[in-house]
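Handout, page 2. Input:
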Amino acid sequence: VTPPPNALTPRQVEVLRLVATGLTYDDEGQQLALSERTVRYHMAEIMARLHLEHRSQAIAYAGKRGMQAPT
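Output:
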């Protein structure tokens, strides 16, 4: 079952886009002015909402939907 496109909050989309670029949670947290723990929390929520089990699946999901970090 594919979740609807609006299954993620804008912040979760932002987190997923940066994770898809290969940043570590710590690096991503620094870019977004969040703690690493908060980034991990967002990723756990993203994976739960999208019914995914691994970070690599979340990255693949982002790639298939053309999610790229803003330049």
